[in-house]
Amino acid sequence: MLPEQLSSALAELDAQGLSRRRLVLASPQGPRVRVDGREYLSFASNDYLGLAAHPAIAEAVGRAVATAGVGAGAAHLLTGHHHLHHALEAVLADFVGLPSALLFSTGYMANLGVLTALLDRHGEIFADRLNHASLLDGARLGRARLSRYPHLDLVCLERRLAASRAGVKLIATDTVFSMDGDLAPVPQLLELAERFDAWLYLDDAHGFGVLGEQGGGVLRHFPHLTGHPRLIYMATLGKAIGVAGAFVAGSPELIHWLVNKARGYLYTTAQPPLLAAAVLASLELVAGEPWRRQRLAVLIQRLKAGVAPLPWPLMPSRTPIQPLLAGSNAQALCLAEGLKERGILIPAIRPPTVPQGTARLRVSLSAAHTPSDVDTLLGALLELALA
Length: 387
What we know:
The protein has 387 residues and is an alpha/beta fold. It folds into two domains: 23-53 and 291-386, Aspartate Aminotransferase, domain 1, CATH 3.90.1150; 55-288, Aspartate Aminotransferase, domain 2 (3-Layer(aba) Sandwich). It is 43% helix and 17% strand. The protein is built from 15 helices and 13 strands. It has helices at residues 3-15, 55-68, 76-80, 83-96, 107-118, 133-141, 154-163, 186-195, 218-221, 252-261, 263-266, 273-288, 291-307, 329-341, 371-386; strands at 32-35, 38-42, 100-104, 123-128, 145-149, 168-174, 198-203, 231-236, 246-250, 321-327, 344-345, 348-349, 359-364. A seven-stranded mixed beta sheet has the order 3-9-8-7-6-4-5, with helices on both faces. The chain has a three-stranded mixed beta sheet with strand order 1-2-11. Strands 10-13-12 form a three-stranded antiparallel beta sheet, with helices on one face. Helix 9 (218-221) links the parallel strand 7 and strand 8. Helix 2 (55-68) packs antiparallel against helix 12, helix 5 (107-118) runs parallel beside helix 6 and helix 13 runs parallel beside helix 15 (371-386). The radius of gyration is 21 Å and the shape is globular.
């Protein structure tokens, strides 16, 4: 796009209610944040367990800086692979019940790295239509055939798997869908992967830390899945874990292949070792403080009960992601602005992130919220409904 075309294209985005601008945070992440000189009650982050500003994690960072410095200084395959990275990979593998794990700088890089390392133009990726954009981009970048099936439609998926003649087949799915909050039928997907000789790739970005025993994610939520050789598991470390980065877990052979072939791992500087120390400290809190997940369950039920009489329905979700369906882009923006005027921050989610006609407020709950915080939100929504 040429420079003179940008202004008209941006004006068109504004006219459609699709223009986005960044908020500038001037506080730690938490249930209350400071933006543009004002404090807001925030339901706008993925800090599901309330760990992003935890003092024990900050203390772990300080200790790591003293012994490991700040920057890694090199890629993992040169001299950037610190013993803290190595220790964290072993802990993460054990945490989710798989033999080996590999750190990536972001979940986006992990998804691109895995899909391009395993499939080429002779492969086929079967992707849920509501998967995260990084899974779609990974398929396109690797030139594999991309077959998108309707959301959670296993009948359609089975039919397409049966018809495929690809040399390598891979089913890719979010576990918790980031804008709907619903859960993929992972055991049934694994059964299909076994029957049709396919990999099953799980993006557990929004389930890790929240679901399962000790917060071990979807594989602990469905415990009979752990250790299965067809599984490729990815989770991020900047949401419930409260730090940054991502990891992929699976068989030792898979991880060794990725070390050699995943370009997003090979050709980038390793994350600072201090972040590995932070994640190690966070995982101790995740496993040792089950009250955080218990509080989330209480808050989810409180929100569901309070929203029931309002004109905006919540979409079906048992997770901290609670989408309040507004309908049009204009309605979602108006609702978000009305809440902002009342000191409450919730993002309006619009196409292309979600399908046309399903614009929504993505209410994101945290263990750091209190029942009173949820009641404040419900009171503001009632005011707007009666206005």
